[in-house]
Amino acid sequence: MTLQIANTWHAALDYFQRTGTPHVLATQITSAGSTPREPGARMIITEDAIFDTLGGGTFEWQTIAAARARLAEQCYGLSLEAFSLGGRSGQCCGGFVNILLEAFSGSSAMLAVFGAGHVGREIVKLSAPLPWQLYWYDSRSDAFDNICENTQRHPRLTYQALHDAQQCVAELPSCAHALVLTHQHDEDYALIAALIQRDDLGSIGLIGSESKWASFRGRLQRDDYTAEQIQRVRSPIGCLHGKKLSNKTPYAIALTVITELLWLADTPAPQDTRGLDPQALRALFDESSTTTS
């Protein structure tokens, strides 16, 4: 990974927190005997990059391996790694360190918005403060020419031309939530037909009236899509508790759509994100204090 950021843990932490990239903050929290660095040393670890150092040597590479294993297994939250430098790590300094690993999942949800019209733009702007990764598509050559500067600098937004519905949908990450709101009904249909063939997406939403969805549903049935596939489409979008707003402005529609997505994309935190056991942590620091005194 080549990034234009300083090779310091705090610069990397800021960057990865803003961009929603999975990463681990490794912090040396205790030190006994001779160790490369003192408590408070930190480094950032991603699946393919490291920033800053805990002092190098075998134990640092073991820390990196442990951090990347947690990322690969999607085990987010806090964990503790203990290193006897003369034992587990085989280093001549022979001290003892404990490393706290804080694994961050990055973006809590992924959203694919098909259409850069008035509603699409409001949805993108409203979702900017949320920890979501956004993918934005439109088939018009000038669709993104006049988007506002704040949107262009959105750290978690990727926008690109939509050339082929099947290929574009095939490239979406698993569990992504898709919203279809392009400027053409035929394009909407092609996207919906491609999306319902994937059973690993978080949700599929289609903008439009009830009559539009009735027309699409009949067409999908005639094209031999199954009832189970068709039922995965949510249309009209932004209907909360089965009610539709009388306010049809793009901003109002976008507000209801984002509210709906907040519920759809919400996932409870795993139990291991509640932290380390207080008794084990107290014993750890008591032992460290006794060793160094």
UniProtKB/TrEMBL annotation:
Q: Which residues form the XdhC- CoxI domain?
A: 18-74
- Matches recorded under InterPro entries: MoCofactor_Util/Proc, Xanthine_DH_XdhC, XdhC_CoxI, XdhC_Rossmann_dom
Under Pfam families, the record lists: XdhC_C, XdhC_CoxI
**What domain of life?**
Bacteria
Domain XdhC Rossmann, first and last residues per copy:
111-261
List the Gene3D superfamilies. NAD(P)-binding Rossmann-like Domain (3.40.50.720)
What NCBIfam families has UniProt attached to this entry? xanthine_xdhC
Name-wise, this protein is: Xanthine dehydrogenase accessory protein XdhC
- Native source organism of the sequence: Halomonas casei
Which gene is annotated as encoding this protein in its UniProt record? xdhC
